[in-house]
Write the structure tokens for this entry.
Amino acid sequence: ILGGRVSRLGSWPWQCSLQSGQSGHVCGCVLIDRRWALTVAHCFEGRESAELWKVVLGLNNLDHPGVHSQSRGVRSIIVHPRYNRAVVDYDISVVQLDSEVEETAFVRPVCLPRPSQLPSPDSYCYITGWGHMGNRMPFKLQEGEVRIISLSQCQSYFDMKTITPRMLCAGYDAGTVDSCMGDSGGPLVCEEDGGRWTLFGLTSWGSVCFSKVLGPGVYSNVTHFTPWIQQQIYIHTYLND
Amino acid sequence: CFHNSCSGCSAASRCEPISLELCMNLPYNLTSFPNYLGHLSQRESSVSWEASLFPALVQTGCYQYLMFYACTLLVPKCDPVSLQKVPPCRSLCRNAKEKCESVLGIVGLTWPEDSDCSQFPEEGGNTSCLLPEDGVDECSPSHFKCRSGRCVLASKRCDGHLDCDDHSDEDNCGCSERALWECPGSKVCIKASMICDGFPDCPLLVDETNCSVCRDNELSCNNHQCVHRTLWCDGKKHCSDSSDEWNCVSLSDGSGSVLTVFRTAAEYQVCADEWNPELSKLTCNQLGLGVPSSVSMVADHPGFFLATDAPNVCLSLSLSVCLSVCLPVCLSECGQRPAVGLYPHRKKR
């Protein structure tokens, strides 16, 4: 996260770290149910097999997981059948954990948006992750406040790419606060009345974020996929093969 | 063999129509092989390195008649009377090489060695040779001609990148120019493979309508397969995309949030007899909505059928007897941040 700040332990109890073998943290992910998490499809390119992965929750410092962290293996990875690697469209995956997590103050699911519920342009939401900060990789979970940008305005930043309805844009013209490599799959969440947080985006792609950042970040639009997500959870939970 | 005897007759040369797309706009339409690059057939020519090198080189605009020259090598003219090949003139070869060889050098490529110009006759000698006539098109059919006259590969037309020096390759890019399908009633372009694939892409979902013709006793899956009504919501997948088991349990949109199940392709309420908290919990979980907040029983709503054979529910004796299950809301404890409260909130000063 560029332009963000260190987050307090437990501030984002749905944030998880998708880790693979020796690489350690590879991508962010988001807990949506005791046994289910979301991330983006491009994290699994070249590493599609579930046993390569584990999900760590209740983390703040990657180097010191601490007593509140919980680690789970991955039972199955469901990449969206329409995921398009070339244009990074339909960039979403549902991850089934090999066992339920214990819900604590530091590990809790985030809400999925209701059908056709979208954050309003110019509203402020939060992104979190352990991705690149522009000058280094952090140990502690970073958080940043970003502004939702309309698709039409977002398209103007990326004239060589198409911003599809499966995408959501957030950030700032100058890119002062933005997600970066290593944040992929992490949450873009907005607070609703009563302190309830809803997941509207998964960090997906953007312009180069090591050097001078230009334009906003692009997120997978979770609202577009909510029916598909719930179908996958239902099928894998209740349907005998 | 016409003019002199020969020991063995090599394959008698003959003319054949040009089929190489690259060279379909030449002022001649018969060719013969082997050609001047050693290819033995048009098929070999079409997959040769030169057949991709020259069209790419044409885009640089290094020589106006480069494509014409390339075609006289790839598919040399065949004289229908003498059945002999007619070569390019030496000056044409020399011009192309002098103007374009250096461009190849920039990208570390070399000029095709088979096309040594000394093998070709000087124009005006007693051997006829080819020179570009007026009106020869410098672009081939597999190019897009920019307004400025430049040629860019057809694949660059409407690809979202500005390739022509005057950007004309990105003008008027409708769906057909991009070999896409235009959604009726809108400007949205989608790939043909996205039609009837189970994922709505067009506004008003027109790409997913009229995709299947199922019999009366069947329903269409999300991917337009047909599955018998009795197999819907029976707990087993019959549609290959398992859509026969989607949304089998729902809370009716009406104010009461009445529990509704979809059985054998019809909607039913659930009778309250024998209902228990476990079923409430299972229902909310199946709906992906967390845990039940409360359950109440309501008199059945007019116009609804009552469940008769759904498992774990009563057998209704008549429309007036059975109360229905109503789950006002399944409380979802999602999206809370209890740990944040653990720290004394910073008092703004």
Notes: Chain A has a mean pLDDT of 92. The two ends of chain A are 41 Å apart (CA to CA). Chain A has two helices and 13 strands.
